[in-house]
Structure formats: C-alpha cells, structure tokens
Design a protein that fits this description.
The complex is a heterodimer of chains A (263) and B (258). Chain A has helices at 42-50, 72-79, 97-108, 113-126, 142-154, 172-189, 200-206, 224-228, 233-240, and strands at 4-13, 16-26, 31-36, 57-62, 65-66, 82-85, 160-164, 192-196, 209-214, 217-222. Chain A is of the alpha/beta class and 263 residues long. Chain B is an all-alpha fold and 258 residues long. In chain B, 85% of the residues lie in helices and 0% in strands. Chain B is globular. Chain B starts with a helix and ends with a helix. The chains are: A alpha/beta (263), B mainly alpha (258). Chain A binds chain B through residues 47, 50-52, 72, 76-77, 79-80, 82-84, 86-88, 90-93, 103-104, 107-108, 152-153, 156, and chain B through 38, 122-123, 126-128, 130-131, 133-138.
Chain lengths: 263, 258
C-alpha cells in the first residue's frame, strides 16, 4: 500500500478547475517531485494532502486514512506525521527562530526544556542554521527563512515532508543550497518527500520520480531518466523552458531577432 | 427592475445569514475549545498583558475626560434649577451604570479588537494560520481562546478601574472647580447606587469583552486578499463590535434593570 495515495482528485474554485482527476501514489521512503507551470494546481495538491482543502471529488489517503473523512482530532494526529514547508516559510513572526522550531515540540510532547533545546539545535544543525536561535524571522534572508521552516517541519520527526516551491525567488547559489539541504534531509531522516519546484536542476537531483501537472491533470509520472526522454511535447517544452509549444494557453509574443551590432 | 431588486435583496439576505452563521459557528467552536488541552499559560499571560495592562493608559485618559466633561455639563445644568447638589449623584449613576462600561467597551474595541483583527489577518495572509494547522494545532484553540479569556476577565476589571477614575474625574470638576465639599461629593456619588448597579456594569463589561474578542478574532481569521484585506479587517472589526456593544447595551439595560 502506498504511503500517500491520491485518487481521482478534483478541485475547482468557482468555474476554474484547478485539479482534474489527478492520480498519484507515493511509496514509503520515495521522493516525488511535482513540476508544472504557475497555476496548474501544485500547491492545491499539497493543501489537499494536508487537509487544508477538501476535494470536490476523489480523495487523498495517508497511510490508508482518507484525509477528508477524518475528524479534527484524527486529522491533527495524521498531521503530526507530516511536515509542511511553505513557499514563503510561514514562520511565526512574533517568535524567535528557537520558539518557531520548538513550537510543535511544546504543543505535542511533554519534554523538558533541555530536551527541547537539544532537539531544536539538532534540527537547526541539519539545515545549517545553528547559532540563529535568538533571531526573529524579520532578521533572516529568504533562504534562511526557508531553512528555519524546514527545521520547524522536521522537529516532530515526521514520516512525510512536503516542500512547496522551496527555491522560488532565491538566487541560483541559494537554490543549490536548498536543494542540498533537501537531499541531506531525505538521506539522513529517510523520510518520504513530495517537492514542488520549478528548478529542474534540483528536481533531477532530488527526485526518485517526477510528475508533471498540466492544466490540472497529471500527464507524466516517471523516474527522472524516463521523464527526460518522454516524447510528450508538453514535457519536452517544459524541459527546454521554451515559450513556443502547447504549454501556454495564450500564444506568447513573437520572438524578436537580436539587434545587429552597430557598425 | 423589480426582479433585479428582489434578486439583490435575496442575495443580500443570504449573504447576511451566511456571515451570521459563520460567526456563530466560530464562536461555538471557541467556547467548545476553552477546556481543551494543551493549556498554554504563557500565551494566556501575554494576552492578559496585551488586553489588560497595556490598555490602562487609554482607559484612564478616556474615563477622566468623559467624567470631567459630564461633570461640567451636570454642574451647568443643575445650576439652572439651583440643584447643584444633585450633580454628584447623577454623575455617580451615569458613570457606574452607563459611561464606564460603554466607554471602556468602545475604547477597547478600538484598541484591542482592531489589534486582534490586524494580527490574525496578517497571520492569515502570510500562511501562519495554515502553518499552525500543519503543526497539528487548532488555530481556534491557540488564537481565539486566550484572547477571549483575557477579554472577558480584563474588560470588567478595566471597567471597575474606569469607575474609580470616573469618581476622581467628577471630583476634580465638582469639588476642585465648582467648589462642592469633598465629603459631600464622596457621599453623594454613591447615594443613588446599589450594589446591583455595579453588578450590572460588570455584567455588561463581561458581554462587551466577549463581543470585542470574538468579533476581532473572527474578522482577522476571515481576512482575504493580502494587504487590502488586512487593512479592512481592523476597520470592520471596530465598526461591527462597536455596533454590537451599543445594541447589547440597550438589551442588557432593559433586561437587567427589570
């Protein structure tokens, strides 16, 4: 049985259909990367897995439990086994880095302050953020915030980690740092991960399988080597990063020839 | 044209019912979450500080100003009938029964209700409330309950404090300016009052505290649309809670004075 089972998942907001009959299975220990253009429902997929949204039809099951059918208390139990890393980190801005990472530990475990401090330090070390405990989120850069968000997500030792566009808006070097942190977490913790990203380099480094969402549907879900040679023109256009092709609904502006150099 | 009118009326009515239902459900969930675990004492103390202690200067200044203006008006009015002695009695009655709870309620809806709406609204649009959900924490339990508890405890306490300040505001004008005897003022201030009047004032303050916290948290929690939504949440919270404080004041007065 798959650890995460997405079955015929559909979700619409008013007349806009965001997800349409999406099927995905993620096995224990596997790392799935979900690619797709902006607005194709990648974040909506993660929110359905976390139970932050309710599907219009179909369902998401985590460890065999159908998320939409759980009571609030049962849902919170399942959520303790899932760590969610938000696109903009979503750190609690009134708390320090230490308090952010310790939040889940204080709410759900009867640990001594020393044990909490040790665990927070361990989590921050794993993401390369040791020594920032007393800083407030406003004092951190974008990449640092994401890493503190990762530390907060792993503090409860989850079985599953969900990354929502962890590298969006970061410079190429920080993008590579984040990619490495995700890889480290995957290897050191042995967790199952679903990562949404636009960054193909880190996608191919992280992924055991890559899925591509296109207009609300999952049109490919393969191991990276097969995904690279998938003949689907949408997949190939996405891999090339070219504006011309079937990917865009509206035709892109025509490509201008580079200006000839002045004589 | 008639159809359009009924169409608009119907959709407006449905929207109002939807809003009222949403507020009722969230309020019900808040009351149900009061006795849930875990108990976060530090969070509760922070709210007591924010709602109560930090509001003292505002309550002192407004209570002093209102009681002084009211004393000036009463002294002037009763002088027309050579009945200056009644000014301190009416001052006491007005402050305890109406001015202290209502002015404190309205000021706190502006100070703490709007702060709650702005804080929760910002948390909503920056996904911090989603982060709470993902950390298996009920936002109603973590955000609403401590604010509600702090408000229902601190608003009555601040109202009692406002009565005390109001006494001295009246004293400054009626004794200091109008030349009444301090001994007579102190006796006359409480002459028309019974212990029941203080109970009514504190009951009103308790209900106002509930309105301020629930409306503030609800408006913040339901914030949508980025910066504009965060900007609208405190305004809408202050308007809604002020309106409900005045409506509740009328019905509570009718109910409790019988």
């Amino acid at each position: 049985m798959a650890l995460i089972d997405v079955v015929n998942l559909s979700k619409a907001f008013g007349p806009k259909v965001v997800l349409s009959n999406v099927n995905l299975q993620v096995e224990e220990g596997e790392s799935l990367v979900v690619l797709g253009g902006s607005g194709t429902g990648k974040t909506v997929l993660l929110r359905n897995i976390m139970g932050l949204l309710t599907p219009d039809s179909g369902h998401v099951a985590v460890e065999g439990k159908i998320i939409a059918q759980l009571s609030r208390d049962e849902l919170f139990k399942v959520r303790q086994s899932i760590g969610m890393c938000f696109q903009m980190a979503a750190l609690f801005d009134s708390m320090t880095v230490f308090e952010n990472v310790a939040f889940g530990l204080r709410r759900h475990h009867q640990l001594s302050e020393d044990a909490i401090r040790d665990r927070v330090e361990e989590c921050l070390s794993l993401v390369g953020m040791r020594g920032t405990e007393q800083l407030k989120p406003a004092e951190l850069s974008g990449g640092m915030k994401r890493r503190v968000g990762f530390a907060r997500a792993i503090a409860l030792k989850p079985k599953i980690l969900l990354f929502d566009e962890p590298t969006t808006g970061l410079d190429p070097v920080m993008t590579d740092v984040i990619g490495r942190v995700i890889l480290d977490l995957k290897h050191e913790l042995g967790v199952t991960t679903i990562t949404i990203t636009h960054d193909l380099k880190s996608a191919f480094e992280i992924a055991d399988r890559i899925a591509l969402l296109f207009r609300g549907e999952c049109i490919a879900c393969q191991i990276p080597a097969e995904f690279k040679v998938n003949p689907d023109p949408v997949v190939q256009q996405f891999l090339r990063g070219d504006a011309d092709g079937p990917f865009l609904q509206d035709p892109p502006p025509p490509k201008r020839k580079p200006k000839e150099a002045h004589a | 044209m008639l159809l359009t009118f009924f169409d608009k009326l119907g959709s407006g009515l449905l929207e109002a019912l939807d809003t009222a239902g949403d507020f009722a459900v969230l309020s019900g969930r808040t009351f149900a979450a009061i006795f849930k675990r875990p108990f976060d004492g530090a969070n509760l103390l922070r709210q007591f500080q924010s709602v109560g202690v930090n509001s003292i200067p505002v309550v002192v200044l407004t209570s002093l100003a209102v009681s002084m203006v009211f004393a000036v008006q009463l002294a002037f009015g009763f002088r027309q009938f050579q009945a200056e002695g009644l000014a301190s009695q009416v001052e006491g009655l007005a402050i305890v029964r109406e001015l202290a709870p209502v002015i404190t309620g309205l000021m706190l809806s502006g100070r703490i209700g709007s702060a709650m709406a702005a804080e929760l609204g910002t948390m909503q649009v920056t996904e911090q409330i989603d982060a709470l959900e993902c950390l298996a924490t009920d936002p109603i339990h973590y955000l609403f309950v401590p604010r509600l508890l702090a408000s229902v405890v601190m608003v009555p306490l601040l109202t009692a404090f406002s009565i005390y300040v109001g006494f001295w505001g009246g004293y400054l004008i009626l004794v200091g300016v109008e030349g009444q005897s301090a001994f007579v003022y102190a006796g006359e201030f409480y002459k028309l009052l019974a212990f029941r009047d203080v109970q009514i004032a504190l009951t009103k303050a308790f209900v106002f505290g509930m309105i301020i916290a629930l409306v503030g948290c609800w408006r913040g929690y339901r914030t949508r649309g980025g910066a504009e939504g965060v900007g609208n949440a405190p305004t809408s919270s202050v308007v809604t809670s002020s309106l409900w404080i005045l409506i509740a004041d009328f019905f509570l007065t009718k109910l409790l004075l019988v």
